[in-house]
Amino acid sequence: MTPAGSLLTADGLRKAYGPTTALDGAEFSIHPGEIVAVMGPSGSGKSTLLHCLAGIVRPDAGEITYNGRSLAGMSDTALSALRRSEFGFVFQFGQLVPELTCLENVALPLRLNGAKRRDAERTALTWMERLEVDDVRDKRPGQASGGQGQRVAVARSLVTNPRVLFADEPTGALDSLNGERVMELLTDAARSTNAAVVLVTHETRVAAYSDREVVVRDGKSRDMERLV
Amino acid sequence: MSIGHTLLGLLESGPRHGYDLKRAFDEKFGHDKPLHYGQVYSTMSRLLKNGLVEVDGVEAGGGPERKRYAITEAGITDVQRWLATPEKPEPYLQSTLYTKVVLALLTDRDAGDILDTQRAEHLRLMRILTDRKRKGDLADQLICDHALFHLEADLRWLELTSARLGKLAKEVLPS
Amino acid sequence: MSTTRTKPVERPVTADRPTGPTGARAWLRDLVMGIRFAVGGGREGWVRTALTAVGVGLGVALLLGAASVPDLLTNRDARATARHPADTMAAKKIDRSDSTILIVDAGTDFRDSEIGGRSVRADGDHPVLPPGVSELPKGGEMVVSPALRDLMNSSEGKLLKERFEGYRVTGTIGDAGLMSPKELYYYTGSDTLTKDQGAHRIKAFGYDDPAEPLDPLLVVLVVLICVVLLTPVLIFIGTAVRFGGERRDQRLAALRLVGADRRSVRRIAAGEALFGALLGLALGAVFFLGVRQLVGVVDIWKVSAFPSDMVPMPGLAALIAVAVPVSSVLVTLVSLRAVAIEPLGVVRSTTARKRRLWWRLVLPVGGLVILLNQDQVTRTAGENVQVYSIAAGATLVLVGLATLMPWLVEAAVARLRGGPVPWQLATRRLQLSSGTAARAVSGITVAVAGAVALQMLFASMHDDFNTTTDQDPRRAQLNVSSPEASGPLAQRMIDDFRTAKGVKGVIGRVSSYVVKPGELKNADDMRPTTELSVGTCATLRELARVDSCKDGDTFVVHTGDRDLDQWVDQTARPGKKVDLNSESWGDYASKPRGKHIPWTLPKSSRTVTSRPDPVGDRYNGIFVTPGAIDVAKLEDANTQALVQIDPKVKDAEEYVRNAATQIDPLIRVYTIRMIERDKQYASVQKGLQAGAIATMMLIAASMLVSTLEQLRERKRLLAALTAFGTRRSSMAWSVLWQTAVPVVLGLGLAIAGGLALGAVMCRMVDKSVTDWLVFLPLCAAGAALVATVTLLSLPALWRMMRPDGLRTE
Predict the structure, then answer these.
(1) Pfam families annotated for this entry (chain B) (predicted)?
(2) Which end of chain C is less packed: N or C, by CB atoms within 10 Å?
């Protein structure tokens, strides 16, 4: 079932929150360096799929394999460590720690991994430069604009050189211009580091930055490339 | 929009007279532009010639309008192929897409599939445009953006239609 | 609108005037609206109102408790007086009658409980009854308090029951005859009680002991304790009113959007606060009533009270009922001054003016100045203690520390940079908004500073209230004495105690005062007197350095003090007579009484040096072995036994007490201790401890609430942090630091302030500071508090760190 060369695959995922079924036999696979858009109407289970893939939520049934390892067999600690070192995350909003400066926010994942403050902040700064937000390094997220904040979040998600970047509606709270800029920078950066990107979005213009798309409807996923 | 495919699709639910076909077409798709009877007649003769329909019977009284048409196996396959093929993404597609969706509902096919397929096709073009935009100069960017916004509008309409499929099915299907 | 006004409006109605009701009506409308929000704000609103109400309720309950202390004490005193035998000290002799009784104190101890008791004997058929007793116990009968009955019937009280096995329990003492519901008290009946055994004849109960006026030092202490315990309660109530403030501000912003003006928004907030406070007031009354019932049933730290005694003074209760709601409204209005609630959201005065130090220093420094200018208070100062200015000074210092707190937290945290991630998260958080933390902690600051100061004061006054007894518990642990003087009794004590379980050795001694017989040279002189002790050689060896001794030997004992030794030698002249009845000669103050009982001190008497006995007493005078004297001849002597017990035997003391009761119920058994504590002092200290614990718990509760509130507000952020792999422990540490940093700062400030206040107070009562380290236990308490708050917020943290927070609702 697992397509050859896949970095992250999922098969037969089921997940219910109480009486609501979020996933009902969804599948997914992504290759290294690939950008896959996960699309679908709201409430279709896109985000749940992302949460399962990233090991944030354990599915009720189904198998997720990352780099040959099954996530189901991993402890919570191991999953956390995996997320810290191999995955990166960008959410729609509310992910930056409001009391840390932007630079400290970007450096945070490195520091959680045990890096020294100085080293972490040096690396963080190069990423901020790449995402063109080094001018807000000493500001708090509340003092930066929405687009800047989201780019800070992208910088933070990439600072650990993750192999998979999970982006859940990364432009959802931005206007078109800022959204486009964030997507350009995000995809450029991801491609330059050969990171795979799982991009959950309901906007086609955002999805157009992907290599292919997977549509989730009623908890089932359709890989459009394999169908067409 | 392909009138031939539409009429074929309408025949899938059962044989009809030419006049019935025109009425059904007008009712469901010809909101602002009713079909001329001559159009029905010429289309049906082309379909007949291609073996996609056959004459099911002629009622007493003669005259072309008294012929009853039925769809052939080849006709059903042709409708299927047409429905499954996404339209080339271009502006003002909605009448074709709408026809396809309604026909899919009428013929018990999955209308969602049509939309997904169409979206994939749109996205394919949008990816090309996005790519061109990123590599091109400002003029390219503006032109691509224009196209992208139009395509996006189409798709948005598609999404909305998808979301309303249930309601639409109730309207178009005879209870 | 103006239609309701009696006078027509004089000013023309201009377009920009608000069209809604104005003045009192607007107030009323907005307050009611606020109350509606508090009640009908959905789950969110209810939680907030409930938190405030519970917080205020706890505070109010404590205040009501404090307000009932005066009555509680008065009622207790009244009952203590009512059961006290009347006229025992009266000069007039009370004649025996049908209603008179003989009564004597006969209390005992059981483990660490003191048991009060009296032995009674009726003279006639209609004896007076002590309060709470329906029938006077006859010989072999006893009436007991319910608590004592329960203790005696429990498995724990088995030994105690044995002690009273000669008595049949015929009834219980009613509440009117008890100080507190858990008091251990009894009356035993006797057929043989005589005045010789120390009993008094009385015809009534209810003797009014000349009330000891409260020691001025204690007055100062009590005032301080009230300030220390009640200020944090007030601060806590202030904090409780602000619970959930940020959410409320957002709701108010939404109201602004639909057209409420700034003033009416404030009034609405005031209405919400008012409702919470009123609910809290009601809840507080309920809590108070609950606790009131509880203290009647349970016995915490040996404090119990009759519910009916716990009645808040009406004036104080009224003050609480008015002050709490009013101050809740004021606190709300003041807290709203720092925020601008705009239609599009809440704008905190972001320019964050730095907190200024100078005015915050005015209060504590002013307080210290007041205290330093006080006259010194001494124990003899009587009623002249300037209680009010001392209270004012101490209050200013303590409240001043509380106002210093926000500045201190801000200033200290501003300099913090770097450190591990949890530390960084915590300090950054504090840098951004230190106010909430500082407010909660200021309560601790006051409590701890006060406690430190008080403890220093206690430590310095230690010697006044805790007399170090010079007793040496290593040589003997129990001291048994009987007013009855008899050699056989001493012997019986020695014999009976020696066979009691857990007893290692007994020193028994009969002693009496003896005088030099004959006329004095000068009638005004003091008649030479010395003590004569009768004991076995073993006993005498414990009391003096005696090398050789056999029965029949006699000794003259010196202490080594020249004056004292000369005084002894005036009476104890070997070969000469002494009179064994010291009263038979009389002196300048009293008439001679009784017959002379001359006895010759043998010429062979050796002079030896005394050594302190286990109780720490040094005896001099004449030591005699039983073979040399007939103890029965000794007039007005008493018998004493010092008992050494085996500390490994559980309840050895109780076995000795039981043995003593078998010999004579009136024998007193004292435990030999290094330190004898003053009872008033002990109860003040007990009160301080109980209060400090309650205060700490209150503060912990408010810190917990604000931590939980903050966690709830950052549900999404916490979920996002979990997503990118943040360890739970990292977040737990950051919660810990976030609590710990302000607490540590608060404790530091409290200790500094408390030491200063304590030093000043010590100076004021003319004592030197003896213990600078009294704050150590309080630091431990602070650490425990931080740990508790962190631990209790962990479940919520874990819940918030679940990915559900990522789901957009």
Answers:
(1) PadR
(2) C
> How close B13 gets to chain A, by Cα (Å)?
27
Do B41 and B94 lie in a common domain?
no
At residue A146 the predicted structure's pLDDT band, cuts being 50, 70 and 90, is confident
Assess: ipTM above 0.95.
no
Length of chain C: 809
**What is the distance between the alpha carbons of residues C152 and C156, in angstroms, rounded to a whole number?**
8
Set of chain A residues whose Cβ sits within 8 Å of the Cβ of C807: 47
Cα–Cα distance, C638 to A196 (Å, whole number): 100
Surface of B (115-134) touching A: CB under 8 A: 116-117, 119-123, 126-127, 129-130, 134
User: Does one domain contain both B80 and B90?
Assistant: no
State whether residue C552 is helix, strand or coil.
coil
Tokens of C749: 């400030």
Tens-of-pLDDT digits for all 175 residues of chain B? 578 888 888 888 888 888 888 888 888 776 667 788 888 888 888 998 998 998 887 776 655 567 888 999 999 999 888 888 888 777 666 677 788 888 888 888 887 788 888 888 888 899 999 999 888 888 888 888 888 888 888 888 877 877 787 787 777 776 5
Q: Tokens representing C459?
A: 């430590």
* Closest residue by Cα to residue A203 from C747, B122, C691: B122
Q: Tell me what pLDDT residue C215 has.
A: 63
Structure confidence at residue C590 (pLDDT): 65
Quote the DSSP letter at residue C303.
B
Establish if A207 touches chain B: CB-CB under 8 angstroms.
yes
DSSP three-state, residue A69: strand
Does B130 lie in the same domain as B75? no
Do B161 and B103 lie in one domain? The reply is: yes
By CB atoms closer than 10 A (0-12, 13-18, 19+), residue C415 is exposed
Q: Phi, psi (5° rounding) for residue B62?
A: 60, -170
Q: Strand A20-30 relative to strand C113-122: parallel, antiparallel, unpaired?
A: unpaired
Tokens representing residue B30 in the block: 């010809």
| pLDDT lower than 70: segments of chain C | 1-22, 40-42, 44, 87-92, 207-221, 298-304, 344-345, 347-354, 375-387, 459, 461-476, 483-488, 523, 587-590, 614-615, 635, 672-693, 774, 804-805, 807-809
pLDDT at position A125, please? 94
Query: Is residue B73 domain-shared with residue B116, that is, in the same domain?
Result: no
Determine the CATH number of domain A8-227: 3.40.50.300
Which among C432, C723, C727 is the nearest to A89, CB-wise? C723
Query: Are both B69 and B98 inside the same structural domain?
Result: no
Whether C405 and C430 have beta carbons less than 8 Å apart is answered as no
Task: Write the single-letter amino acid at C696.
Answer: M
Contacts of A47 in chain C (CB under 8 A): 806-808
Query: Structurally, how many domains does chain B consist of?
Result: 2
Sign of CA pseudo-dihedral C256, C261, C264, C265? positive
Structural domain including B39 reads 1-84
d(C-alpha C165, C-alpha B60), whole Å: 129
Confirm or reject contact between A208 and chain B (CB < 8 A). Answer: yes
Cα C511 to its chain centre, rounded Å, is 39
User: CB of A47 within 8 Å of any CB in chain C?
Assistant: yes
> How far is Cα A66 from Cα A196, in angstroms, rounded to an integer?
12
What values do phi and psi take at B56, rounded to 5? -90, -25
| Residue at a domain's end among B23, B50, B84 | B84
Would you list the domain boundaries of chain A?
Answer: 8-227
- Separation of alpha carbons C204 and A217, rounded Å: 95
Give the chain B residue whose CA is nearest to the CA of A37: B123
Cα(C497)–Cα(C798) distance, integer angstroms: 63
Please indicate, yes or no, whether residues B137 and B79 belong to a single structural domain of this protein: no
**Where is the domain boundary, B84, B108, B128?**
B84
Residues B50 and B118 in one domain: no
